[in-house]
Each structure stands twice: as structure tokens, then as C-alpha cells.
Amino acid sequence: MQSRYESSPRETAGMTTKELRDNFLVETLFTPDQVHVVYSHYDRMIIGGIMPKNEAVPLGNYDELKAEFFLERREIGIINVAGDGKITVDGETFNINKLDCLYVGKGAKKVVFESVDNNAPAKYFILSAPAHVAYPTRLMTKEEASPASMGAVETANQRVIYKYIHLDGIRSCQLVMGLTVLQTGSVWNTMPSHTHDRRMEAYCYFDVPENHGVLHLMGQPQETRHLWISNHQAIISPPWSVHSGCGTSNYSFIWGMAGENQSFADMDFIAIPDLR
């Protein structure tokens, strides 16, 4: 488990490219039969990836959590971004295909990840936040996530949004989680930009074509910075930071949040002419 500590807007404004990447980019998420996790001190969110290929992979425990098991005082949201898989939670098995989401509540002791086909393994992106209430484990397929079409070809942001963990979907203690699929010819996400000072956010970019990338914008609206993101990489976005991106092709991304509230509409928008 890696740890990433908070950085203030002032110090972030002066960071080199390497320092920005070291603090905010999660470069490696998916390695066969391993668990990669990063502990962010923004709202104590854990960001990770699991790719079971040759064997089942359990969600382990970490000394840094000071807990008897991973979900003793935590909840977790899981979205599969690749081949079909299945997850077993305390003996109950859930089939989870691409773009399906599984929420596992506080108190679950044994979570095991598998792939249906080793030649096309599942890739599970995970977000975990502290929890003080135990909500039931629940699977939601992409078809059940009330996909909503938004944007337009003229603004290069025609997209479909899937909401999974939120106040009107899968209930959680503080997690909010979903994903966005950009249509062919569209490249912009989350523009106009916004911040939400009451919660951090994390992105996981996936289905980025080979030899393409996403230019991710971060920083304060009047002091923006950028990072080039590749397929299957994640970004940590502080509450004070914008989080937008523009790709060299269309792509998809998971968005997830934790913090003071769960309102999907809690956004402080920034007009495009005010960005610097």
C-alpha cells in the first residue's frame, strides 16, 4: 500500500511535472494476480486495481489500516472495466461483467476476485472510504444504472453517464461512484469545469485506445496544471482542484468521490473564460 499525503494549492502550483505525477497520478493499477492500492489522505480514500488472471485474488489487509480486516471500518465500490468476472463476498458470489458495479458494505470479512476467462481477465477498479454505517452488499449492472445521454457533437462531449453508488441508487455511507462513456468523435469530459470543496474525487481512465492519451487538467481554476494520462491509470483530485480532461480519441472514465455529502449536484462551476 502506497500513501499519498495532502498537498496545498500553493505548493501544487510550483510542482514540476514529476512532482505532480508522484503526488496525484496512480500509474499502475492492473498486474496479473496482484492487488495495487494507494491510500490518499484526501478524505482517506483508497484507490486500487485488481486483475485476477491465473488464480482467485483475495482482498487482503494492510498494517496501515490498523484493522482486523480490510472492511472492518470501511466500505468499497468495485467496477469491472474488462472481461467477465465474479466476486465472492463472505460466501455469496456475484457475477460482474464489464461496466457492472458491486458495492460491499462495512463489516464484510472476505472478498475474493476472479475472472471467468483467464485469456480475457476482469480488471476491477476499487474505491474504498471509511464507513460508520453498514449498508448491504449490492450488485448493479450497467443496464440498471439508468444510463443518461448528455452533451453534443458540436461541443465534442457527447457521452453516456452511468450512476451506481449515490443517494438514488446503491446506498452507501459516503461513497459516490459511476462512470462516463464518451461517444466516437467526442473527447472532452467535465467541461465547463467545477470543484466541490466538500469532497475529493478520483478518476480512472479506461478504454483509451493504444497510442492515445488523455490530457487531464487539475489545479485551482486560476492556476491550472496538466498531466498526460494513459489507459488504466487513475488520478487523485483534491477538493480545491478542477478535474477535466481532453483525449486524443474518445475514451471512458470512472469517477468516484468521498467527503462531507453525497449530492451528485454539489458542484461549484467555473465558467470557461475564467480558467487560467
SSE order and pairing:
Layout: E1 2-4, H1 9-13, H2 17-24, E2 25-26, E3 35-40, E4 46-50, E5 57-58, E6 74-80, E7 85-89, E8 92-96, E9 101-104, E10 111-115, E11 124-130, E12 138-140, E13 148-150, E14 159-165, E15 176-182, E16 188-189, E17 194-195, E18 199-206, E19 214-220, E20 223-229, E21 233-237, E22 244-247, E23 252-259, E24 268-269
Keywords: Isomerase, Metal-binding, Zinc
Pathway: Glycan metabolism; pectin degradation; 2-dehydro-3-deoxy-D-gluconate from pectin: step 4/5
GO molecular function: 4-deoxy-L-threo-5-hexosulose-uronate ketol-isomerase activity
What's the total count of β strands? 24
Q: Please, how many helices?
A: 2
Structural class: mainly beta
Query: Gap between N and C termini, in Å?
Result: 35 Å
In total, the number of domains comes to: 1
Function: Catalyzes the isomerization of 5-dehydro-4-deoxy-D-glucuronate to 3-deoxy-D-glycero-2,5-hexodiulosonate.
InterPro entries: KduI, KduI/IolB_isomerase, KduI_N, RmlC-like_jellyroll, RmlC_Cupin_sf
Catalytic activity: 5-dehydro-4-deoxy-D-glucuronate = 3-deoxy-D-glycero-2,5-hexodiulosonate
GO molecular function, one term: 4-deoxy-L-threo-5-hexosulose-uronate ketol-isomerase activity
